[in-house]
Write a structure and sequence with these properties.
Largest sheet: 6 strands, mixed
Oligomer: single chain
Strand order of the largest sheet: 6-7-8-3-9-10
Structural class: alpha/beta
Helix content: 40-55%
């Protein structure tokens, strides 16, 4: 039995299995004068779910995402990506997620294809595999004809698409998306939502912030609402309706929660 246990444990590690998830543990961040823009935040994003992170402008959403991904240092607490601390084991943690930032204006002097190959090099994707993935993604996002153009010539929506394509290249366990629908045309927005659903069907996680509450209502398995740096609600839309004893839209409940906080 013990031999079987260790064989299964070894296979599990190879396949990246186990209790993989994003864990935010008592995290705080202050920019100046000790005022915390994120205050003792704790939540867990489970494998197989789309988690929506909601809040008014300035509530701490982007700051939280920047701490999850290691762009900003954490003042207090820790964040684990599939068990790897972003503070003490950042390289392993960063291998486990793909990020779409809130601003797609990155590497704009590169051509689209150069940017995608740069990302593929970072994640050591073979030439054969990257050619097939780039072909499929560029067709899906209708970018085949502009890959040889510089990113600085792209519209905002096209820049958003090329960043999303780069994020999907290495098929990460966790997708972290900061306002990913901004600037996308309806077709690309539809495709991205389908990709997010397919991602979670593979027992992987999606963590995304959005101000489009109708999208969150239809798409998310759970949501977390942050206001003034503190988590004021976490759960499903149905749990939110029960807690506030109202048959209201997510938008209406969101306004009530953040106004009363």
């Amino acid at each position: 039995k013990w031999h079987l246990f260790y064989i299964m444990l070894y296979i599990n590690r190879i396949n990246g299995g186990g209790d993989v998830m994003i864990e935010i543990k008592n995290v705080s961040k202050a920019y100046k004068k000790g005022i915390k823009v994120v205050n003792n935040l704790s939540l867990t994003i489970k494998d197989g779910e789309i988690f929506g992170f909601l809040g008014p402008n300035g509530a701490g959403k982007t700051t939280t995402i920047k701490m999850i991904t290691g762009i900003l240092d954490i003042d207090e607490g820790d964040i684990l990506i599939d068990g790897n601390s972003i503070k003490t084991n950042p390289l392993e943690a960063k291998k486990r997620f793909g990020l779409v930032p809130d601003n797609p204006d990155i590497f704009i002097k590169l051509k689209g294809i150069e940017y995608l190959n740069f990302i593929a090099d970072i994640y050591k994707i073979s030439e054969e595999e990257r050619i097939e993935k780039i072909k499929n993604l560029s067709k899906q996002f209708e970018m085949e004809n502009v890959l040889n153009n510089k990113i600085q010539s792209y519209s905002h929506g096209m820049r958003q698409k090329i960043v999303i394509m780069g994020t999907l290249l290495h098929d990460p366990q966790n997708l972290i998306l900061d306002e990913p629908m901004t600037g996308l045309d309806p077709r690309s927005s539809f495709d991205l939502k389908r990709i997010m659903r397919e991602h979670t069907k593979q027992n992987k996680s999606v963590f995304f912030s959005t101000h489009i509450l109708e999208v969150a209502e239809r798409l998310c398995d759970r949501v977390g609402i942050i206001n003034r740096g503190k988590l004021v609600f976490i759960g499903t839309y149905e749990e939110m309706k029960r807690e506030f004893n109202k048959k209201a839209s997510l938008e209406e409940l969101f306004m009530e929660i953040t106004d009363n906080d």
